[in-house]
Each structure stands twice: as C-alpha cells, then as structure tokens.
Write a structure and sequence with these properties.
The chain has 389 residues and is α+β, with helices and mostly antiparallel strands. It has ten helices and 18 strands. The longest helix is centred in the N-terminal third of the chain and has 30 residues.
Length: 389
C-alpha cells in the first residue's frame, strides 16, 4: 500500500472507530444516524472499515466479558494496575504500567493492521465496489453535464445531461436502474451474472454488449450498437438464473434486438417495433454532437434543451413539425438559432429568459413588424428578407 493510500485508510479506520465509540456510549440521535449512513454511502471502503472495526470491537468486548461484562472496566483496570491484565507476551523491561501500555498499543496496532489487510483483500475480491455487500451506488449528471465511469466489473457507463442511474451488483445479476435521462453501456462479459437495465416499465437484459437507453416521460428508447439484448415490459424476476439473455429471449413478450437496431417502449402498451438504428445519431451525444436527419423541430428543441442554459420553446403545429437536418455541436445553440432565422415562416425571439420560436405572421403593408417587445417597433422587412433580420 502506498503511503498516501495508507494515510487515507488510517483516516477511514479512525472514523470507523469513532462511530463505534459513539454507539457504545448509547443510541445515536436521528442526526447522528443520518451522518453515519451518509458517510457509509460515500464509499464501500467506508463500510468495509466500519464492519471490520465492529468485528474487532466485538472480539475485544467478548474477551472482556468474563471479567466485567464490558470493555470499559477492563480498560479502567489496565490503567489502575497490572494485576487483572494478562500480557500478550513477556515485558521487555520497564515498569509494569509501561508494559501494559505497550500491550495496549500493540492491541490497537493489531486492530489497525487487521483493518488495513482487510481493505487490501477486500479490494482484491471486489469488496470496494460494494458487490459482496450489496451496496447500491448512484451516478448522476447535472444540466449540461456529461460523465463517464468504469464500473466494478470492467463495464463502462456513459451518462448524458440531466441523467441519474443507480448501480447495484449482486451475486446473480448486475442491475442498473435508469431513473431519468440517457445512458450508454459497454458491458463486460460475465456469464454467471446477467446485466439488466431497469428503466421503469422497460427491462433490458444483456451479457456482453454495447447499447443505449434513453428514458423519457413518453417512453424509453433502446438502441443496440454491438451484441444482442432482450427487452421486456414490466418486471423481471431478479434472481432467476434461467433469465440470462438466452432465457429472457424465450419469455412471453420478450423482443430480441441485434446490433444496428432500436426500439421504443411507449405508454400505449403496444409491442415495440424494432427498426434500423442510425448508429451515428445514437453515438453523437457521447461526442457532444446532435445529428439531425429530417427531425421534427419539436424534437430538435427537446435535444438542445438538454444542454442549453437558456431554454428554447417552439409554438405552432406547423413550426413544430418542420423537418430539420444537419450536424450541430450539442452546446452550440447560437448556430441553431442562426439557422432557424433563415427559414421561411419562422420567427425567433430571444430574451434572457428564453428563446421563442414561433410562426412568422404574414404582414400587410400598413402593419408594423415586431420582434420581442411590441413597444419597440422595427421597420418592416423588404420582400424576400428573412423574418429575423
């Protein structure tokens, strides 16, 4: 263990010992319980240190139980003298009181060493990822933020803006719950544990593959980039070993998907239609791009609003249905606005609070032309000019 890692490990042990001492003093208050569980959730290694310190503490109390029932009387006795203390090894000189103190220091050092060794072994066995402890871990991105994390089994997790997932690795399966937003998975093969994504009413089962899950209020879209998956509606028995990918494909209502395909589970309960996927569009967000191919302007605005600091709003059925094609930077709203200004029948109104996209009203020669605040009239554009200029 490197010196820096040892410092962190020792600090973790001291914190765990502090919590154990508080619990021996009496029941924790509501605030202390919240603090304890918050600290435990910070890292699985915190849980490992706490459990190991609890075990050591229990062993010490068991050793003292024959004497007085608790560890505290034994500790007090050791400070008063040596007549009630059995040394672990013969003293190497000095007063009996010094010998007892040396033995106590050895005991503390031994407990620390046990925890340090346990941390190293735990890391080797996958303890630090919470897998053996069954600890969930949340991954989340804020608005206009993206993130990538390696998962404990070697899989990779990519999150788009405004997304949150919870990863829970167990003995028979690896489960990722998509609470909101979009996630792409590069799944490491593990034939003993299936990989399942829970996106509300949509379940996706895989073994080793790469796929994208986009959970929206209207439904969940699944696109497969490599390998195969099975998608199902509703819940799936979490511990059934037969429900690996081959088993899931034989379940009633299961739909098989291969690389280059996508499907969407909607709220209308209809079976998903598997269609070819534009893999460039599927991958685009991981490269901070938005690829449009005859996409309705309403969907375009929805995509850009995931990254824009100023929300876009589109009004009018005809404008919402306009088909847009092109490649834009995900954060380059200015280019989209400039593009929209050049379209016939579209007017763009910008303010510090929003960017409004509305139909351009036909003008009579005597009618003033307004953009934004009607109190500030502007000259009527000449025939053929863009509505926004």
């Amino acid at each position: 263990m490197k010196p820096a890692e040892e410092i962190v490990a020792r600090a973790r042990i001291e914190r765990a010992a502090e919590w154990r001492a508080r619990q021996r003093d009496g029941a924790l208050s509501a605030k202390e319980r919240v603090e304890l569980f918050s600290w435990l959730r910070e890292a699985p290694a915190n849980v490992a240190a706490y459990l190991e310190m609890s075990r050591v503490d229990a062993d010490l109390q068991a050793a003292a139980r024959d004497r007085a029932g608790t560890f505290r009387p034994l500790e007090a006795d050791s400070l008063e003298g040596t007549e009630n203390v059995t040394p672990l090894r013969p003293a190497r000189g000095g007063s009996p009181r010094h010998a007892v103190r040396r033995e106590r220091r050895m005991l503390v050092a031994t407990a620390t060493a046990i925890v340090l060794v346990g941390a190293v072994v735990g890391a080797t066995l996958g303890l630090v990822d919470g897998q053996r402890l069954g600890l969930p871990k949340a991954y989340e991105t804020a608005h206009a933020e993206q993130g990538t994390w390696p998962l404990p089994d070697g899989s990779m997790l990519h999150l788009n803006s405004d997304s949150r997932v919870v990863v829970h690795y167990g003995a028979s399966e690896r489960v990722v719950t998509v609470e909101r937003g979009q996630a792409m998975f590069q799944v490491a093969k593990d034939h003993d544990r299936r990989f399942r994504v829970d996106a509300g009413d949509t379940q996706v089962i895989a073994v080793g593959t790469e796929f994208d899950v986009y959970r929206r209020p209207s439904g969940t879209r699944v696109a497969v980039l490599e390998g195969r998956v099975a998608i199902l509606r509703g819940s799936v028995p979490s511990m059934a070993p037969t429900l690996s990918l081959p088993g899931a494909l034989s379940l009633p209502g299961a739909t098989a998907m291969a690389a280059g395909q996508q499907a969407e589970m909607t709220d209308d309960r209809k079976p998903p239609a598997v269609v070819p996927a534009d893999l460039r569009r599927v991958r685009a967000w991981t490269q901070r791009e938005i690829v449009l191919e005859a996409s309705p302007l309403a969907e375009v605005v929805e995509d850009f609003n995931r990254y824009s600091q100023i929300p876009l709003e589109v009004r009018g059925d005809e404008v919402r249905a306009l088909k847009i094609s092109g490649v834009f930077g995900a954060y380059d709203v200015e280019s989209l606005v400039e593009f929209l200004r050049r379209l016939d029948g579209v007017r763009v109104e910008e303010s510090s609070a929003r960017i409004l996209i509305v139909p351009a009203r036909p003008k009579r020669p005597s009618e003033p032309w307004f953009v934004g605040d009607p109190a500030e009239p502007r000259a009527q554009p000449s025939a053929g000019a863009d509505a926004g200029h």
